[in-house]
Amino acid sequence: MKRNGIVLIIVTIIRFFTACEKDENTSTPIQIVTSKSHYASDENIVIEVSNVSDSVARYYICSSYEGISPLIERLEEESWTSYWSPICDGYISHCCGELQAGDSYRDTLKIDFDPGYYRIEYQFIVRPSHEYESYYSNKFQVE
Questions:
Q1: What three-state secondary structure class fits 56?
Q2: Helix (H, G, I), strand (E, B), or coil: what is residue 21?
Q3: Which member of 5, 54, 74, 96 has the greatest number of CB atoms within 10 A?
Q4: How far is CA 88 from the centre of its chain?
Q5: How far is CA 94 from CA 19, 118, 134, in A?
Q6: Per-residue pLDDT tens for 48-101?
Q7: What is the pLDDT of residue 113?
Q8: What is the Cα–Cα distance from 108 to 85, expressed in whole angstroms?
């Protein structure tokens, strides 16, 4: 009898933690994924940004970048620091482009990466009257 109780407790704990992981991964309205987790330094980074919410996601249109402007961050000494982003001017750059609910956007970054760990940040307004929020890709390595 004690053994069945212990097994039940263990199964309950496992279900609790796997349910929390599943909710955490699907709760973000914007999902950003690179095509691979490891790249060579001369390889282009392929990204897919998906609006999995039921709302339009609005983004800032940068005059010097075709598409949705990314911010590339590099992991340095246990913290993320800005590595690269397009330079936007205040005259031609403006709000707002739209990524419709359920739509995806693909981009290929043709940037010289130094070896290290990186992630991509995009900023969107997902709900009306809210501020821009940052959404991040998975961490990936450039060798």
A1: coil
A2: helix
A3: 74
A4: 21
A5: 40, 27, 18
A6: 999 999 999 999 998 888 899 999 999 999 999 999 999 887 777 888 899 999
A7: 93
A8: 14
